[in-house]
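URGENT: need a sanity check before tomorrow's submission.

F., can you look over the Flagellar protein FlhE record below? I want to be sure the sequence and structure line up before it goes out.
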Amino acid sequence: MKNVKELYMKGMKYASVLVKTMACALMLGSLQAHADGGYSSEVVARNISTPNFWVKTDFTIPSYATFPSNAKLYNVIWKYTINGKIPSKGTFIAWLCHGDDNTCLNVTNAKSGTTTAFNTDGKALSTPFYLKYRINSSSSFSTVATGSAQLIVNMSY
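Structure tokens as predicted:
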């Protein structure tokens, strides 16, 4: 009787491991992106030299980018760098925008990331993105160097 119980327990252990393995495989499969096309843009961001003034860096849409009529925005991936030091009494603010200042995502605390926030903004896929940023400060400061900024726009058909 003891052997039957041991075999049953071993079988349950293997079944549990199998179920967990299958669940992990399904989760990983669902995390894979399904992008059919898109474009990427890398620009040198403008430095910040004036307090309380928005600086705008446009992401260019490359000439190879095509926008089929059945394409939809899948996701947007961004990354930007600040190479200089933010003044001690200054507050850095950054927004990633699609076409205008009314369609923006606050990226102040996320220098890189992925979003689907623009998927339903009603803008054409050919509408360019831009990064706008500033340093709020009650006093002037030395120029704060930024760096490169990258954007990847993925589309699905």
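My own read: The chain has two domains: 1-32, 37-156. The two ends are 60 Å apart (CA to CA). If you see anything odd, call me.
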